[in-house]
Amino acid sequence: MARHRWISILIFLSLTCLGVIGGLLAFRWVHSDPAAHPLARRAPAYPIAVTQPAAGVVLVASRQMLDPRFQHSVILLLAHDDEGTVGLIINRPTAISLADALPELGDKGAHHLLFFGGPVALNSLMFLIRSPVPLTQATQVLDDIYVSSDRGTLEQLLGKRKATGMRLYFGYAGWGPGQLNVELARGSWQLFQTNADTLFQEQGDTLWEKFIGPANRIMARRPTDGGRV
C-alpha cells in the first residue's frame, strides 16, 4: 500500500517531448565521470555506511558496476518496499535549462539547470526541495528535504526571489520487487547515509569519489575482527 501511495504522488510534469529532451541530452550532457535517519544537517568528515536500503539513503555504484547507465552514479532513494524501489541520480548535471524543457515558464526557468535523474520516464520531471517547513504537495525524503512533481509547487518556488534550495531532475531510476536486493548482494552498489548539505552543495563530478574513494571507503567499514580492515 505504501508503494501505491508513493506512485499516486508522482503525477509527473510533462516536458516538451521525449525527442527534444533526448536531442538536448545527446549534445549538451555534462557527463560526470570522475575518477538510518533523520540525519544531522552537517556532513560528516567521512560517509557512514548503512546495511539496508530505505528512503533517504544513497545508493552508490561500486567500482564493480557493469551497467554503463549507472557507473559512477550516486542515487538518492525516494521509496523502497516490497513492491520495488524509486530513486534519483543526483550527480549528473546537464546543460539543459528548465526554460529549454518548459519554454512556457519563460525567464523563470532560465537559471535552473536540469539533472539527469535516471533512464526511466525521461519525459517526466521531479524536483528536490530544501524547506524548513513541511510542504503540502511534496513528500519528505529525509531531514528537511522533500520531493515533488507538482506543477503549482514548482511555479510557486520559481516565483520566489531566491529558489536556490531546489534541484530538478528528468527521468528516474526504478527497480522491480527484489531487484535491488539482488544487485546489492552481487556487489554492484554500496549504501550510505546522506544529508541536505551533501545533496545541495557537493559538486556532481566529485560526489561519487567522496563516497567511494579509497580513504573514505576504509573509514566507512565497521570491522568486527578487533580493528583490522
Mean pLDDT: 77
Shape-level CATH architecture: 3-Layer(aba) Sandwich
Characterize the overall form: globular
CATH topology: VC0467-like
Helices, by number, come to 8
> Which residues form runs of ≥5 with pLDDT under 50?
1-41, 218-229
Can you write the helix and strand succession as a string?
A: HEHEEEEHEEEEHEHEHHH
User: Tally of extended strands?
Assistant: 11
Query: How does the major sheet shape up?
Result: 11 strands, mixed
Task: Itemize the secondary structure elements and their pairings.
Layout: H1 2-9, E1 13-14, H2 18-28, E2 58-61, E3 74-81, E4 84-89, E5 93-97, H3 98-101, E6 113-116, E7 120-130, E8 139-142, E9 145-148, H4 151-158, E10 166-175, H5 179-186, E11 189-192, H6 196-201, H7 204-212, H8 214-220
Please tell me about this protein's structure.
With about 230 residues, this protein is α+β, with helices and mostly antiparallel strands. The protein has one domain (about 1-35, about 45-220): VC0467-like, CATH 3.40.1740. It is built from 8 helices and 11 strands. Strands 1, 2, 3, 4, 5, 6, 7, 8, 9, 10 and 11 form an 11-stranded mixed β-sheet that branches. A hairpin with a 2-residue loop joins β8 and β9 (about 145-150). The protein is globular and about 45 Å long.
Keyphrases for this structure?
single chain, about 230 residues, alpha+beta, VC0467-like, globular, disordered N terminus, disordered C terminus
Quick structural gist:
It contains 8 helices and 11 strands.
